[in-house]
Write a structure and sequence with these properties.
single chain; about 575 residues; alpha+beta; five-stranded antiparallel β-sheet; five-stranded mixed β-sheet; 7 helices; 30 strands; disordered N terminus; Kelch_domain_protein; Kelch-typ_b-propeller; Kelch domain containing 4
Length: about 575
């Protein structure tokens, strides 16, 4: 009895501390939220002037991340709502609504009166009742300078049949938050986790709320067992029987000193299960088999065929003494909720014969025989470069999971067959992209990645058939012209004066730079006849390393210099 009493006392103490912290955060952030509420009210007053539904055929949505992409329950349509964009100086929040027609490959912007105010990092869930509905909860709004935050606790529903937004005002719901997760389980919406942040404080949650779609009422669940630690941006998937949800991963941070914060990327997994008809819930920890994704945050998630959880991309931040660098991913993992097993989503090679062993591995990818598959030996890295409108060169690392042995076998097969492999088309590594599945196909829109101090926000659009697992289809290519980035300066006036002073010399300098670039190109080692890109890289390795070192500076790590050198050599080779 003594041990049990101590444990209960400890739990109550932790709950009391969390409640105090929440109150503290709430107090300090109230002043900020009051300021932002006035700004949000302005947006709403402008929206209130719209009295009619206006639908316009349009280009794809602008670059963004942390919006929501949902599949229509009846039609071959996708619904994109909200999101954010940062150009280096200003943060933009959206509440625009787009419908994508899958068969026609067209976009329509739908302006419906009285929509939710602009937001990002919210959650949206589609339900089939009433002709189809889109339920939206929470999210955040930020001041243009990105220094103040407002966290929503509102609940909205978009009625597809009537093209109307409705604000559902039900008491007892979750506190304001973003980065939470929400799924449909039976006839209720389940909300888990998230965070609330102000200028000085932050708090992460691990509470669970249920919203009944029958009674339109909130209730806070009190599951038994050991719950996941507080976190945001986890993966939350309903079990196929509708009796529970699975939580995987997520992110949280703690303050270790007054001005020092430490982030944690979680990679644990839990099951929240409904017990009987009494609406009693319990937590239990899961230990899945198979090949788990490497730790990461900011991954995209969706639910694939047979209730499988689909995880794409993300970022793993490497914290050093004075810097924070991230490795971005574009790999794909699937979790079988029935077998409690992870497996990597490796694409089949197009236009190539395969051995019986290879066929078996491909069955594993599509989930037909994953129990017998061999575990992968390690990821493969591929370096790519993209040049933006302003001339910035983005060097991107792509990490592709797959057995080394398998790759060797494929090379041997290629030599035997004499057939060339089709070029690998896939999304570049990214985090915070929007994803959903419709008719067994995974759709992926936007997201972001970073190069140095610069953030690139994307508006490309991809599709992958999860049954075939053969190749990504590009629906919208990334447009370098959309990559706006404004560097911060100490004084805008100084900037203008510098521009005026240099205006007369601008054209002369530009022509000098162009001629220097042409000279540099002529000095690069020439590609020999019949030489492959790998042979060329090996032969000219030291030259390109020297050039990369000169561009990146003496402080750059050897490993990164070598990667950039390989990429530069490849780009030059492909241009010849």
């Amino acid at each position: 009895m003594g041990k049990k009493g101590k444990k209960e006392k400890k739990v109550k103490g932790a709950e009391k501390t969390a409640a105090k912290m929440e109150k503290k955060v709430s107090k300090r952030s109230k002043r900020e939220e009051d300021d932002l509420e006035a700004l949000i009210a302005e947006f709403q007053s402008l929206d209130a002037k719209k009295t009619q539904v206006v639908e316009t055929t349009c280009p794809p949505p602008s670059p963004r991340l942390n919006g929501s992409l949902s599949a229509h329950p009846e039609k071959d349509e996708l619904i994109l709502f909200g999101g954010e964009f940062f150009n280096g100086k200003k943060t933009y929040l959206y509440n625009d609504l787009f419908f994508y027609n899958i068969r026609k490959n067209t976009w329509v912007k739908s302006e419906i009166p009285n929509p939710p105010p602009p937001r990002c990092s919210h959650q949206a869930v589609v339900v089939p009742q009433g002709g189809g509905q889109l339920w939206v909860f929470g999210g955040e709004f930020a001041s243009p300078n990105g220094e103040q935050f407002y966290h929503y606790k509102d609940l909205w529903v978009l009625h597809f049949a009537t093209h109307t937004w409705e604000n559902i005002k039900a008491p007892g719901g979750p506190s304001g938050r973003s980065g939470h997760r929400m799924v449909l389980s039976k006839k209720q919406l389940l909300v888990f986790g998230g965070f609330h942040e102000s200028t000085r404080d932050f708090i992460y949650y691990n509470d669970v709320y249920s919203f009944s779609l029958d009674t339109f009422s909130w209730s806070r669940l009190s599951p038994s067992g050991s719950a996941p630690s507080p976190r945001s941006a986890c993966q939350m998937t309903s079990t196929p029987d509708g009796m529970g949800v699975i939580i995987y991963g997520g992110y949280s941070k703690v303050r270790v000193k007054k001005d020092v914060e430490k982030g944690t990327i979680h990679s644990d997994m839990f099951l929240l299960k409904r017990e009987g008809k009494d609406e009693k819930w319990s937590w239990s920890r899961l230990n899945p088999s198979g090949s788990k994704p490497p730790p990461r945050s900011g991954f995209s998630l969706a639910v694939g065929p047979a209730g499988r959880a689909v995880l794409f991309g993300g970022v793993c931040d490497e914290e050093e003494e004075e810097s924070l660098e991230g490795d971005f991913y574009n790999d794909l993992y699937l979790y079988d909720t029935v077998k409690n097993r992870w497996f990597p989503g490796v694409l089949r090679k197009v236009g190539k014969k395969t051995t019986s062993k290879r066929n078996k591995e491909m069955q594993t990818v599509s989930g037909q025989d994953d129990e017998e598959a061999a575990a992968p030996q390690g990821p493969t890295e591929i370096i790519k470069e993209i040049v933006t409108e302003d001339g910035t060169v983005m060097t991107i690392k792509e990490v592709i999971p797959g057995p080394q042995v398998q790759e060797e076998e494929e090379e041997e097969e290629e030599e035997e067959d004499g057939s060339a492999t089709a070029p690998l088309i896939e999304p570049c590594p990214r985090s915070s992209a929007m994803a959903t599945v419709r008719q067994g196909k995974l759709y992926l829109y936007g997201g972001m990645f970073e190069v140095g101090d610069r953030q690139f926000t994307l508006n490309d659009f991809y599709c992958l058939d999860l049954h075939k697992m053969d190749q990504w289809e590009v629906l919208v290519e990334m447009d370098p012209k959309t990559q706006e980035w404004l560097e911060e300066s100490e004084s805008e006036d100084d900037e203008e004066e510098e521009e005026e002073a240099k205006g007369a010399e601008g054209e002369e300098e530009e022509s000098e730079e162009e001629s220097e670039d042409e000279e540099d190109e002529e000095k690069h080692p020439a590609v020999q006849e019949g030489e492959t890109v790998t042979d060329y890289q090996n032969r000219t390795e030291q030259y390109w390393i020297g050039l990369a070192r000169a561009n990146m500076g003496s402080d750059a790590k050897d490993k990164k210099v070598a990667k950039v050198a390989l990429a530069m050599a490849k780009v030059f080779y492909e241009d010849q």
